[in-house]
Design goal:
Elements: E1 3-4, E2 7-12, E3 34-35, E4 44-63, E5 71-78, E6 91-99, E7 110-129, E8 144-154, H1 171-175, H2 195-199, H3 203-221, H4 225-257, H5 261-281, H6 284-287, E9 344-351, H7 377-380, H8 414-421, H9 443-448, H10 450-456, H11 458-464, H12 469-485, H13 491-510, H14 514-535, H15 539-557, H16 562-577, H17 579-584, H18 586-591, H19 601-618, H20 626-636, H21 642-659, H22 672-675, H23 678-691, H24 696-727, H25 731-739, H26 804-813, E10 818-820, E11 827-829, H27 833-840, E12 847-849, E13 856-858, H28 859-868, E14 879-880, E15 887-888, H29 891-900, H30 909-915, H31 926-933
Antiparallel strand pairs: 1-8, 2-4, 3-8, 4-7, 4-8, 5-6, 5-7, 7-9, 10-11, 12-13, 14-15
Helix pairs in contact: 3-4, 4-5, 10-11, 10-13, 11-12, 12-13, 12-14, 13-14, 13-15, 14-16, 15-16, 16-19, 19-21, 20-21, 21-23
């Protein structure tokens, strides 16, 4: 049921030195409220943090009488699962805004109380307070808030339709259906939780009213209706008295501030006398039954929330399962539109101080004096709210907002609420009396704990299973003491005690009370560091203990409470350093076991952080290897939670920085397809950075620049070649080619269509005279159809397509006697390739001549090449092929036979192209070619 939520202001963008934001943490008549700094910038931000993650149902704002903002926006904030509960981790969803009146009609003597209904889940509530209404009293353009109130329900755990605690019926209703209205009010908000109650009530009277309200509800359940009526009347009277005393307290405070101490003393006396008189007139001792209850029957004040059963009420097992709508997680909460206005439930105008100057005092029935009522300290230490056990569960009066269907909250017993609250609160439930014993164990628990009972006894184990947290803590402490005092000598008994103690340690680790959890860790530390070495237990016992408890520690490391998570992870790190545990390597192997992808984000992140810490602290020791860590990392990268992948990515980067290339063996190949994925691209870019490689983007840019430069060179050379062609058109060009070659330096090194033939003198074209008077035809002599320009002077091939450009292409791609230099890209004869590399090539400084085979060897490989003596020696009087490294016949014919013949050089790819050409285009007429070349042919660079 919604109730007043405790909170504190953890952030404010500005505040006045006197009216600080911490004033909003408490509600009382003396609260001064918060004011912004003078001439501040707008909007002003304020963030309040709730004690626990809660479902907010109602927000109340009491504004200042003249420092009034024009608008206040509300945002609900929460933190992702697994993230620390810090302001920086919060993510906000906008709920809407409310507008405030300028208060001009009241003469700036009243305050506006805005109450709005919301439905949101989170840890934080953020207020954006916009600029002020301008008036003559607000000289410094400030805004102020007197008080903030938040009403809702704490969320101890997520809603679950299968939760056995979600009871659908209550036996009291089955006995008397008329009581149904007392239990079925899930939306009811008590007037005692309203902001106006605490702000305008004397604190002592407010405590008494709450106690009376509890007694009234108890009386209704006990069917003591006359007593309930008396309590109701007393509550009504005390509310008026509390408001009067509240105003008098303010007046006393003003007198003290004005140093009018006589007036302050007089007010104090008046308040004391008035208070005592009211207590006597209402016979408060009797109402509160301080001398003993007249109806000693025990009443469970925690009404069970449920849906109204039909009449007659069926048995519990016959009821169909209810339809429960789970409240959405804050990330899935639908955001209102940017101009959404929150539904204002009520707007009250309250005078600046108190509206009851003429309120009459209660009737004075007697002048006798009675002893004052002393309110217990536990009820005055805080601004308490009526317990959930005292709240009626029937539907509140219908309003437009209440017509909305809301999911029922989860049900818990009083003791469960107390114990689970310990994970988030510092308070502990009341401890039992010393003479009380732990409650008996159930049959199931007795069977489960039979081994521990045999070792430690039923009394101690019963305390470990008790519902009282102090008993559970005492049980673990007793086991700790007993294990320390055990004498050495009986190893089997020590093993049995260790197994029994580990069983209780597991229960303690899973305990929701922080004190019990700490006691379990303390016991576990003693077992591993003192008990095991003392009794010289072996590795199997230690391994078994670690394997049994690690799953519980892993689960605790993903707990919602920050201190539970931190302590569990710290203890796992500490365990890894224990000599006995470290020797088994069990902990490391258990930690790096890949987890299921369905594991929750908070638990998965904690596992990854544990592995990361183990690697940072111990490196590849104690069972950690590159193989098992990287397999764990690869599986973790597939998790759908970004915070999990962030931890894995950080760990992979650290490992690559330390170990380098072996890390890549476990990742996808580094190619363009893989780098399209953002995660892989970031990883591989980091790897390149570690390796000192330029980023891929810079390499692509450099390559583009080189291509542009190369194209510019080609264009320039093409223009030079075209100019030469224009100058040597027709026969003049052939004459020039017969007198000397075209300078190869003007030819492009990369474009085959722009390459000139290697330098070789062309002979005159052969002229064959026809026999007799028979006209010459193509069939008589095919050579007559060709000119010197149609013949390759190196391989002897003739072709009509061998024009100037056609020969260039032939030299560049097809001539079997030529090849391109792999270093400078020039076309040279294969016969002179070695001399070219050693004497003419641009890269000649990078080569040395081998004295054995006479070939050009790269200098980095030269020493090894000479030392190996594995090359084929060059024989005197023979040619040595630089392609296949074989010795061949001397002279030009030897080269032609080797480079063009059917059984020639296997390493010459152009040889097969020349052999496979059709008869009309190949160099089939060697006689004509030889005749056309006129004897010994020249070479580009000269032959040996």
């Amino acid at each position: 049921m919604p109730h007043k939520l405790q909170f504190k202001v953890i952030h404010a963008s500005g505040q006045d030195d006197i009216y600080r934001a911490s004033e909003l943490n408490h509600h009382s008549p003396l609260t001064k409220g918060w004011q912004s700094a003078r001439f501040c910038l707008y909007p002003q931000d304020m963030v309040i943090q709730l004690e626990t993650r809660s479902r907010l149902r109602k927000i109340q704002i009491l504004s200042h009488q003249f420092l009034i903002p024009t608008k206040i926006e509300f945002f609900v904030g929460d933190v992702p699962d697994g993230a620390p509960l810090l302001l920086e981790s919060a993510r906000y969803a906008r709920l809407g805004y409310v507008s405030l009146s300028d208060n001009e009609k009241t003469g700036y003597k009243a305050r506006e109380l805005k109450s709005v209904h919301v439905d949101a889940v989170g840890h934080f509530l953020k207020l954006n307070i916009h600029k002020n209404h301008v008036n003559k009293h607000n000289l410094y353009n400030q805004v102020g808030i007197i008080a903030i109130n938040v009403i809702g329900d704490e969320l101890r755990r997520p809603y679950d339709i299968t939760d056995p605690d979600l009871l659908l019926d209550d036996p009291r209703i089955e006995r008397d259906p008329a009581l149904e209205g007392l239990f079925n009010k899930p939306d009811y908000i008590s007037p005692l939780d309203d902001l106006a109650f605490d702000m305008y009530q004397d604190p002592e009277i407010a405590q008494i009213i709450r106690r009376l309200e509890r007694k009234k509800q108890e009386a209704v359940l006990q069917e003591r209706y006359d007593y309930a009526k008396r309590l109701k009347q007393a509550i009504t009277e005390l509310q008026k008295v509390g408001e009067k005393l509240g105003k008098m307290e303010v007046e006393k405070r003003q007198a003290v501030e004005n140093e009018d101490y006589d007036k302050a003393r007089l007010k104090k006396v008046q308040m004391d006398e008035y208070r005592l008189q009211v207590y006597k007139d209402l016979n408060l001792n009797d109402l509160l039954e301080l001398t003993g209850s007249r109806h000693p029957q025990h009443i469970d004040l925690e009404p069970v929330r449920h849906y109204s059963p039909p009449t007659p009420p069926p048995r519990l097992e016959e009821l169909p399962p209810p339809t429960i709508r789970t409240p959405p997680h804050y990330e899935e909460y639908p955001l209102p539109r940017s101009d959404s206005v929150l539904e204002v439930v009520s707007t009250k105008t309250i005078p600046s101080y108190y509206p009851f100057d003429d309120m009459p005092l209660p009737n004075q029935k007697s002048k006798s004096v009675i002893e004052p009522i002393t309110v217990p300290a536990e009820e005055t230490s805080k601004s308490p709210r009526p317990p959930e056990t005292n709240r009626s569960k029937n539907n509140s009066p219908r309003t437009p907002h209440d017509s909305r269907r809301l999911p029922p909250p989860k049900l818990k017993s009083i003791k469960e609420d107390e114990e689970k609250a310990l994970t988030l609160e510092e308070e502990l439930p009341p401890e039992p009396e010393n003479n009380q014993e732990a409650e008996p164990m159930s049959e199931v628990d007795l069977r489960e704990a039979s081994t521990a009972i045999d070792i430690f006894g039923l009394s101690l184990v019963s305390k470990a299973y008790s519902k009282t947290w102090s008993y559970r803590e005492d049980a673990l402490t007793a086991v700790h003491h007993q294990m320390q005092q055990m004498p050495t000598g009986n190893k089997e008994e020590a093993k049995s005690m260790l197994r029994a103690a580990i069983f209780l340690v597991k229960r303690g680790i899973d305990d929701k009370v922080y004190a019990v959890f700490r006691a379990a860790l303390h016991l576990y530390r003693m077992l591993l560091t003192e008990f095991v070495p003392k009794h010289k237990l072996g590795k199997p016992d230690i391994t078994s203990a670690v394997e049994k408890t690690l799953p519980n520690l892993f689960h605790k490391a993903g707990d919602t409470a920050v201190r539970n998570r931190d302590d569990a992870k710290s203890f796992i790190q500490e365990m890894a350093s224990f000599p006995e545990v470290k020797a088994t390597q069990t902990l490391a192997h258990e930690c790096v076991k890949p987890f299921k992808l369905t594991l929750g984000p908070r638990h998965a992140q904690s596992r990854c952080e544990i592995v990361e810490s183990l690697y940072q602290n111990f490196g590849l020791k104690g069972g950690l290897t590159i193989d098992n860590i990287m397999k764990f990392n690869v599986e973790g990268l597939n998790h759908n939670a970004g915070e999990v992948r962030d931890v894995i990515e950080r760990l992979i980067k650290t490992m690559y920085k330390n170990h380098g290339a072996p890390i890549k063996d476990y990742l996808p190949p580094d190619d363009e397809k893989t780098r399209k994925n953002t995660l892989w691209r970031q990883l591989f870019e980091y790897f390149d950075q570690v390796d000192g490689k330029p980023p891929r983007t810079d390499a692509k840019k450099q390559k583009a620049e080189e291509e542009q430069k190369k194209q510019a060179e080609i264009d320039a050379l093409q223009k030079q070649l075209q100019a030469l062609r224009d100058m040597n058109a027709g026969k003049a060009l052939r004459s020039d080619r017969s007198n000397g070659p075209i300078d190869a330096s003007v030819l492009s090194k990369n474009d085959p269509s722009k390459k000139a033939a290697p330098q070789k003198k062309k002979p005159e074209a052969a002229k064959v005279k026809p026999k007799g008077n028979k006209p010459t035809t193509k069939d008589d002599d095919d050579v007559s159809m060709f000119t010197v320009d149609n013949i390759c002077i190196f391989c002897g091939e003739r072709n009509e397509s061998f024009t100037e450009e056609g020969l260039d292409i032939h030299y560049w791609k097809n001539c079997p006697m030529l090849k391109r230099c792999t270093n400078c890209k020039q076309v040279v004869e294969i016969a002179t390739y070695t001399d070219h590399v050693l004497t003419e090539c641009e890269a000649k400084s990078n080569f040395s001549k081998c004295p054995r085979c006479s070939e050009a060897i790269p200098k980095p490989e030269y020493d090894q090449h000479v030392a190996d003596k594995a090359c084929n020696p060059h024989k005197t009087g023979q040619n040595h092929c630089p392609l296949c490294h074989e010795n061949i016949s001397s002279g030009e014919d030897g080269w032609k036979e080797h480079l063009m013949g059917r059984t020639g050089c296997k390493q010459n790819p152009r040889r097969l192209l020349a052999l496979n050409k059709p008869a009309g285009g190949a160099a089939g007429n060697k006689t004509t070619a030889a005749r056309g070349r006129g004897g010994k042919a020249g070479s580009v660079r000269g032959r040996k």
